[in-house]
Amino acid sequence: MPKMKTKSSAKKRFRVRPGGTVKRGQAFKRHILTKKTTKNKRQLRGAVAVHETNMGHVAQMMPGRGI
Prior knowledge:
This protein is 28% helix and 15% strand. By secondary structure, the protein is an alpha+beta fold. The chain has one domain: Factor Xa Inhibitor (Irregular). A 3-stranded antiparallel beta sheet has the order 1-2-3.
C-alpha cells in the first residue's frame, strides 16, 4: 500500500501546533486593500486557530501530521 500524501495546498496554508491545534493565516488581506479601513486591516494581522468545526476537513487533507 502506498503512503498517503498530504495535500500540497494544505501543507502551504496550515501549521500544526504542538498542542494539536492548527494555525492558519487570515483571509481578506491580500488585495483590494484601499477600500478596507485601517482598523479592519490591523485586525486581520497575525495567525488564528482553525475552528473546531473545520478540523475534520483539515485532518483529512493532512494525514499523519498528528491532528
